[in-house]
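Hi all, posting the design record for the shared folder.

TITLE: backbone redesign
STEP: 1 of 1
STRUCTURE INPUT:
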C-alpha cells in the first residue's frame, strides 16, 4: 500500500509559478516510477510528466515542455512538479501517481490505468 499526499496547489496569475510536492509513504520509493496527471473540468485526465526511478529520465506532454519540470528526491520520498509561465489552460486538479510495475518495453506510461496509486489531488487555478 502506497499513500500519496500532494501539496502546493492554489491560485496564481497567468505567467506565475507554483511548485507541487507529493510525498509517498512507500518504503521503496526509489523503485517507483512517478507521474503527474491533471484533469480540467469537462476533460479527460491527462498525463503531464513522468520521472524514472532514479530521476535520470523524464517525459512531458507537449503542452508543458519548457515550462514544467518534474524532479524527485528519493531520500525524502518526494516528487515535485515545478510549473513556470503558467497559463489559464493549465487550470486543473493535479494528481501524483505511482507506477509500481512499469512495462519492460517502455520505462514510462501515460495511461492512467497503468498507475497503481493516486494522491487526492490539488487544485491549480490560473487567472488571466
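Okay, here is what came back for every position:
SEQUENCE:
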Amino acid at each position: 500500500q502506497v499513500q500519496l499526499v500532494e501539496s502546493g496547489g492554489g491560485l496564481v496569475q497567468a505567467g506565475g509559478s507554483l511548485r507541487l510536492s507529493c510525498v509517498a509513504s512507500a518504503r521503496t520509493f526509489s523503485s517507483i516510477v512517478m507521474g503527474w496527471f491533471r484533469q480540467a473540468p469537462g476533460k479527460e485526465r491527462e498525463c503531464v510528466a513522468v520521472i524514472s526511478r532514479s530521476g535520470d529520465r523524464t517525459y512531458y506532454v507537449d503542452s508543458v515542455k519548457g515550462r514544467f519540470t518534474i524532479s524527485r528526491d528519493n531520500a525524502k520520498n518526494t516528487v515535485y512538479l515545478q510549473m513556470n509561465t503558467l497559463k489559464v489552460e493549465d487550470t486543473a486538479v493535479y494528481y501524483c501517481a505511482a507506477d509500481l510495475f512499469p512495462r519492460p518495453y517502455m520505462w514510462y506510461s501515460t495511461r492512467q490505468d497503468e498507475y497503481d496509486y493516486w494522491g487526492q489531488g490539488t487544485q491549480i487555478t490560473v487567472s488571466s
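COMMENT: Residues 36 and 96 are 4 Å apart (CA to CA).
Let me know if anyone wants the other runs.
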